[in-house]
Amino acid sequence: MSWLELVAAGLGIVAVCLTVRQNPWCWPIGLIMVLLYAWLFYDWRLYSNLLLQLLFAALQLYGWWQWTRGGERHDGRKVSRLGIAAVAAGLLSGVIGAWLLGYLMATYTDASSPWLDSALTAFSLVAQLWMAQKRLQCWALWVVVDLCYVAFFLYSELYLTAGLYAAFTALAVSGWLSWRRDPALQCAP
């Protein structure tokens, strides 16, 4: 455990708490967190997770824009649900992304866990994209992904990060419950 991991974990908790509350400051704080984790994952040779953090950096900027300027009237997105077809398409893209990234990591790098790391990376990207668009289903996917990350980081002996993802799991449950009560969701088609 390093001071960098401790700072990144703390920022992660703050960012997700702000996300649950639909506070747009979650995005710049999250941007700092993912850049710190990119550095850490490079040191730990978890290259899919490094790539994930760099993609998350771009998604942090996208989410910040969506939450503050997105939507039909450019006044920020409101919470909404995805239809069954959109959920299926997102999950299928996660499967395809996991397979492609896993193959690349297993074939061309010395990644320590290429297939599992790649699967978690691909589904994290789907969840993060849904979160940036304020889709309720992001939280359900985050619960599953975060629980898998807890086991993965425990196995990798990254205990503080495993604890962080356990907290993320609890926050994802809280986010699901909070966003389900959002008045904008009740009015959405």
From TrEMBL:
Transmembrane segments: 46-67, 79-102, 139-156, 162-179
Top-level taxon of origin: Bacteria
Listed GO CC annotations: plasma membrane
Record keywords: Cell membrane, Membrane, Transmembrane, Transmembrane helix, Transport
Transport listed as a keyword: yes
Membrane topology designation: Multi-pass membrane protein
Membership in a protein family: Belongs to the nicotinamide ribonucleoside (NR) uptake permease (TC 4.B.1) family.
Protein name: Nicotinamide riboside transporter PnuC
